[in-house]
Amino acid sequence: xxxxxVETAASPGGGRPPSGAPxxxxxxxxxxxxxxVVYFFVAGVILATWASRxxxxxxxxxxDDGALSLGLLGLxxxxxxxxxxxxxxxxxxxxxxVMLPSAVFGSLALAAPAHxxxxxxxxxxxxxxxxxxxxxxVPMNVHAARVExxxxxxxxxxxxxxxxxxxxxxxxxxxxxxHLGMGAVAAFWAVALACTAASFxxxxxxxxxxDSTREEGAPDAREARADGAADRNSPAPxxxxxxxxxxxxxxxxxxxxxxxxxxxxxxxxxSDAVAAAGFAVFSAAMAAGxxxxxxxxxxxxxVALVRGCGLLAAGGLGxxxxxxxxxxxxxxxxxxxxGLSCIVPxxxxxxxxxxxxxxxxxxxxxxxAGYVGLLSGPVAIGAIAHLWELRAALAVPALxxxxxxxxAGALRCSRSAQRxxxx
Length: 423
What we know:
Helix content: over 70%
Low-confidence stretches: 1-21, 213-231, 415-423
Radius of gyration: 21 Å
Structural class: mainly alpha
């Protein structure tokens, strides 16, 4: 996987690694990987810290649940808008140049909701927070893909594992600050400044220069025509399909986030404590799956991995729905989390590898599609549950996981996926 000029960082002398098995990454490349891990971790910490103190912010703003839902819309709108801007800016200036200002903006935006005392102010604050997340999400994934190409083996899942771990740390920090009686203003500013400092500290470790040139990594004219993408100003059909698969995966993930505890309590008859543990089990299994996802991708290839993960996620959720007993349902949600863990990292890697010269634009489109699924999925599940029942509604994410498994062949658009699939 060391064809493009950016991959020469893996060679101590600056030249191309020898053909055959990829050479061991040098010290500079390992540092770049560690830096990207920090940025993923910071992004996870920021979102989880905000989520952990939502009740305090809601009370401070003096709004009810209905108004809060309108305020949360600002988070979604900001993220979706920023992802499109971030994609084009990343392609123009390079991910290394964009990551630090994006991370600093996203970190400092965390403090904004703590100063909101009305619904309009909260909407504006959450728009800024969402924009910060959208701005950092694209360049850090593009740079992660660049480091992965330089490594010559799959490592994308480890970056997403860092995001999940950051979520655990952020939620824990928020809970601890609330337990100690620290107000949201002090807690958010403390985390914001710490994340800002971490972002500055690791910036010099990123790979310098542009991420790629069209000649280095983009599909040739024959590949473009075969994919129906002769007009490179428009996203290729394969990239659009990757966006649909990402949307399906995020619908399933968002449904688990919002409806796991409700299903355990109302349909499986679990106690409040067991119901509350449902999402924790799901999240832990997802983080664990991402920690081993790179090894599985290297061993079986991205296409086989996504197919297997989609089937595992669908089977786990199906088990929870077919046997509505607390213990069985918890096992089912754990399997669902493990199954969903590796789908999105592989999709993002394929989106950036398809055409590295337009990695930011392609990833921005795919990530935005996924974010739409993450936000709209739980709402759709609630609407279906209102018309029928929750068990029937949760069959939808199971079917979408099966769709992700069926559409896994789209990952062959990535050169790395092509090589892994023919081994």
